[in-house]
Amino acid sequence: MINHLQDTVTLHNGIKMPGLGLGVFKVEEGETLVQAVKTAIAHGYRSIDTAAIYQNERSVGQGIKEALSESGLRRDDLFVTSKVWNADLGYDATLAAYQGSLDKLGLDYLDLYLIHWPVKGKYKEAWRALETIYQEGRVKAIGVSNFQIHHLEDVMQDARIKPMVNQVEFHPHLTQKELLAFSKEQGIQLEAWSPLMQGELLDNDVLKTIASQCGKSVAQVILRWDIQHGVVTIPKSTQASRIVENASLFDFELSQEQMEQIDGLNLNQRVGPDPDNFDF
What confidence score (pLDDT) does residue 280 get? Predict the structure, then answer.
């Protein structure tokens, strides 16, 4: 379990990944995003998560470039993630998509590259491309996103390299207990997107009571719950105050009873698509 903002988890290939990062889902290109990235890095974040489909890699890259210039940090102090979109899940198309993301971000390599969704009949070829990129030393780690247990088993059946990360929707209404256990058993790091359920959980009475007990916000309680489950988390915000608040998680701990209360909120409810039944 991480104990401060720059603490890391170690992936099965030995690469260290920050346990908390900034997500930029649906944040448009532009100065607001550039400033959000700079604010996060200035306040100690070292992980930034984007994706080709977000169409904001250029602004993320600009924010990183300016933050490095102003802070004296080096590129290898940061952990940058992007993802290949569904339309590019062929072998050659995935290779080209990776280079396209690098070009937009203005980077020479990514720390983590993910297959965004398990499109049936396509993700194995994409995984073969990710293995090639990894074996060529052009990316530090590779993984998947939104994969269920049977998708992971299918990939691993033919893979030369096991996925290092699986980024999935994970929050108190979707605790993914079986997937979390499987991931730990297989040494695949689970990472939470939409950890706050796009804000829908902020008025939950159980969470509000626990937050009051801890003297923290509901968002901080949920993110702390992620951390105590060993799940990497990437809350999204463009507001400086919220970016700082989301990282203030290391001066309190949820009790076992509080953890169980939050676990008990599970409804198997998604805000995003079902990985077994989606149409993009």
Answer: 79
